[in-house]
Give the backbone structure.
Amino acid sequence: MKKALSIYLDDGEAEAITLAIEEKADLILLDDYDAREVARKYGLHITGVIGILLKAKYIEKIRRVKPYLEKLKKTGFWINDDLFLKILREIKE
């Protein structure tokens, strides 16, 4: 399966999806759009880095999400500016 997925995705994403399917994982961490689309076709439940940050805030492991989002952007993590602002508005930051 990994070999077939590697046609569409990079090796790491293909391996992660293959392993999640084999292990019947409850959740897979993916941020790449194409990888998320493939994972959805296999019925996998997906979250990304932003989802992890929001969960951390809701369970009070971190106080604010904005500094982490800003740091991610500075290191090359791509996030649409509208989505960035929408997230901050929704969590009142």
